[in-house]
């Protein structure tokens, strides 16, 4: 059996090696390292793939979120509601811009921000909601967009883990994640579903004026050379990363299919095993009604395959798997509202019952495009051995 890895970037590279190697060499010999034609072509291709009017490439997914918020003109003291259960980048940029992060609880089954919790957290100072499509499954965008409309709030989708996924609205309409809110961000960090060979990110929007504002912000606030109209940042995608992304983008759907196929095999192996709760794919947005990972839609792109374990010592399970040569992860072990940097006296523990529970129960198994049947069987056997012993 091949050594099991949490993320296998090498196997994926082998399949696109020729194109990647030659196009990287082309970039080097063209010497158009920044804002070269490769970046422009990638931008166009991603706009087409997502069916969104504007893609603005930038340096990483954290910058993308920050720039999206700057572009919307959010001001210090404005409150921004986001999930307590996500990667810290989401709340970090809110705090960095001196906006006020308002963390709220998530849903136990989807791990995504809970619309009822958003409603309860709205005050006259609330200006935006940041749903994160956690682990590759879209948040409840029907509810979130309707709350935003009712209260005149911006929606900024953090799509770092959801690229290539779709959301099916209650009315049957389908849209790619990252094209639903007013503006969205994504990350091309190597381990993401569409990853480059360094850092990279992008902002998406259908709003022409906002796109124009953001294009200036990513480039020192310049709309005309050496005329700095707004305070900007330096955040660019370089041509070498763009050329890698151009090689991978045509395969993104196939990559996500491979992830879903691995998830389906995991689910099947864990069926009926006591104390293991497999990830819930929300039926209302899917062709199928129940917790089935269907072939016909893209409702989950499995950036992570995350189980919950009940009545099991999760940390002991992690250690046991590691000892068998199976890497795994705990995303995320501490709720953001309990992180030193983001503690706030206004938070009441009783409002975070789900996150407080999830941090003790979640475990993410190896998930990437190169997992084979033998590896999955070995992983599931060991998980089952431990929880049923
Ligand atoms: C990875 C990630 C980010 C940050 O992206 P970087 O490119 O690493 O800056 C932001 N939000 C979420 C949910 C992420 O998973």
TrEMBL record:
InterPro entries: DegT/StrS_aminotransferase, PyrdxlP-dep_Trfase, PyrdxlP-dep_Trfase_major, PyrdxlP-dep_Trfase_small
One GO term of the biological process aspect: polysaccharide biosynthetic process
Active site (catalytic residues): 192 (proton acceptor)
GO MF term list: pyridoxal phosphate binding; transaminase activity
Residue numbers of N6-(pyridoxal phosphate)lysine PTMs: 192
Keywords, ordered alphabetically: Pyridoxal phosphate
Top-rank taxon, per record: Bacteria
UniProt family annotation: Belongs to the DegT/DnrJ/EryC1 family.
Name of the protein in its database record: dTDP-4-amino-4,6-dideoxygalactose transaminase
Native organism: Aquimarina amphilecti
């Amino acid at each position: 059996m091949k050594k099991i890895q949490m993320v296998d970037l090498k196997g994926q590279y082998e399949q696109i090696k020729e194109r990647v190697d030659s196009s990287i060499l082309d970039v080097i010999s063209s010497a158009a390292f920044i804002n070269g034609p490769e970046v422009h072509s990638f931008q166009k291709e991603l706009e087409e793939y997502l069916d969104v009017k504007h893609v603005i490439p930038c340096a990483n997914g954290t910058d993308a979120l920050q720039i999206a918020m700057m572009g919307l003109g959010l001001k210090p003291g404005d409150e921004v509601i986001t999930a307590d259960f996500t990667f810290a980048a989401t709340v970090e940029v809110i705090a960095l811009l001196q906006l006020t992060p308002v963390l709220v609880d998530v849903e136990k089954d989807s791990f995504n921000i809970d619309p009822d919790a958003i409603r309860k957290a709205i005050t006259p100072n609330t200006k935006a909601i940041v749903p994160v499509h956690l682990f590759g499954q879209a948040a409840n965008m029907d509810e979130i967009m309707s709350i935003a409309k009712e209260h005149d709030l911006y929606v900024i989708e953090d799509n770092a883990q959801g690229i290539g996924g779709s959301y099916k609205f209650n009315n049957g309409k389908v849209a790619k994640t990252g094209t639903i809110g007013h503006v969205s961000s994504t990350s091309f960090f190597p381990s993401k579903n569409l990853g480059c060979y360094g850092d990279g990110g992008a902002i998406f929007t259908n709003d022409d004026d906002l796109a124009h504002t953001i294009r200036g912000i990513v480039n020192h606030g310049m709309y005309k050379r050496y005329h700095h109209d707004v305070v900007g940042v330096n955040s660019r995608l370089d041509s070498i990363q763009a050329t890698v992304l151009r090689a991978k983008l045509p395969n993104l759907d196939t990559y996500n299919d491979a992830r879903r196929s691995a998830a389906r095999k995991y689910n099947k192996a864990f069926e009926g095993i006591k104390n293991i709760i497999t990830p819930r794919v929300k039926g209302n947005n899917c062709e199928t009604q129940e917790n089935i990972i269907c072939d016909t839609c893209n409702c989950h792109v499995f950036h992570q395959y995350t189980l919950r374990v009940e009545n099991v010592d999760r940390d002991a399970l992690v250690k046991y798997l590691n000892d068998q040569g199976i890497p795994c992860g705990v995303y995320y072990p501490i709720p953001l509202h309990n992180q030193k940097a983001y503690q706030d006296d206004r938070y009441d523990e009783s409002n975070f019952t789900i996150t407080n529970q999830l941090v003790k129960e979640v475990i993410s198994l190896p998930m990437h495009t190169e997992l084979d049947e033998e590896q999955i069987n070995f992983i599931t056997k060991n998980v089952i051995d431990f929880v049923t012993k």
